């Protein structure tokens, strides 16, 4: 148990569906992240939030829309996805931005786009 | 951009033997490095970290070695156990950016 909880753990959606991934951290951290993990590829940073403000959008297509209502919650809204978006989406948190310590990861949401 | 790679995508070791997993990084300005372990169906978990002002750091059954001259990082696992079977990947941290390797899949043979 890392203190970062992601739901749902598995999601199957069609290309025309709209769904959301949820992440909640119970660690009192101020920075939260979305990463995409595809087979045989390094983790790809998607979005970074620091004190609820987005500080990084790593050229992510607009069909992925993040939302951070407070420092403990992070959402990833999905719409009109493509099959190549199928991947494991990992949420992470850290006390603050910077190389002050590790990232704490959730278990991930396994997304399959049909 | 950053390039963090591993020398071998897979590694099989006999239970009880020592394992060595390697990682090469490209940015000599990176000042912090982390090894993560990811078991099947789970998120990455922190194993051990090291800062650039150190050459070696030891944890419980794990040791990380940093060779800044050749920009090489290694993870040594002593007396490998079946529970060590997982994907291991390194992270190179420069400023606020984390760069991850692709991972080495470690299989422990009973």
Q: What labels would you give this structure?
A:
heterodimer, A: 114 residues, mainly beta, seven-stranded mixed sheet, four-stranded antiparallel sheet, 56% strand, globular, B: 110 residues, six-stranded mixed sheet
Count every helix of chain B, treating DSSP H or I runs of 4 or more residues as helices: 0
Mean of residue pLDDT of chain B? 90
Query: Of all protein chain pairs, which has the greatest interface, and how many residues does each chain bring to it?
Result: A-B, 20 and 26 residues
Helix fraction of chain B?
Answer: under 10%
- Rg of chain B, Cα atoms, Å: 13 Å
Q: Would you write up a description of this structure?
A:
The complex is a heterodimer of chains A (114) and B (110). Helices cover 0% and strands 56% of the residues of chain A. Chain A is mainly β. In chain A, the strands form 2 sheets. In chain A, strands 2, 4, 5, 6, 9, 10 and 11 form a 7-stranded mixed β-sheet that branches. A 4-stranded antiparallel β-sheet of chain A has the order 1-3-8-7, with no helix packed on it. Chain B is built from no helices and 10 strands. Chain B has strands at residues 10-14, 19-24, 32-38, 45-51, 56-58, 62-67, 72-77, 86-94, 97-100, 104-109. Chain B starts with 9 loop residues before the first strand and ends with a strand. The relative contact order of chain B is 0.34. The model of chain B has no long low-confidence stretch (mean pLDDT 90). The interface between A and B is medium-sized, with 20 and 26 residues.
């Amino acid at each position: 148990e890392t203190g970062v909880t992601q739901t749902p753990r598995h999601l199957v959606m069609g290309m025309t569906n709209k769904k959301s991934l949820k992440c909640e951290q119970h660690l009192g951290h101020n920075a939260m992240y979305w990463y995409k993990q595809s087979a045989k590829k390094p983790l790809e940073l998607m979005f970074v939030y620091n004190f609820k403000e987005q500080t990084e959008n790593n050229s992510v297509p607009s069909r992925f829309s993040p939302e951070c209502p407070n420092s403990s919650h992070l959402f990833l809204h999905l719409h009109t996805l493509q099959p190549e978006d199928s991947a494991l989406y990992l949420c992470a948190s850290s006390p603050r931005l910077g190389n002050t310590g590790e990232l704490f990861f959730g278990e991930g949401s396994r997304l399959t786009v049909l | 951009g950053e390039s963090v790679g591993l020398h071998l995508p897979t590694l099989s070791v006999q239970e009880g033997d020592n394992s060595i997993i390697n990682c090469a990084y490209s940015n000599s300005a990176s000042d912090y490095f982390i090894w993560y372990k990811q078991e099947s169906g789970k998120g990455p978990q922190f194993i051990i970290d090291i800062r650039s002002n150190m050459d070696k750091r030891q944890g419980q059954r794990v040791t990380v070695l940093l060779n800044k001259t050749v920009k090489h990082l290694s993870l040594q696992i002593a007396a490998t156990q079946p529970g060590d079977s997982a994907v291991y990947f390194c992270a190179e941290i420069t400023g606020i950016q984390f760069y991850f390797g692709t991972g080495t899949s470690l299989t422990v043979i009973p």
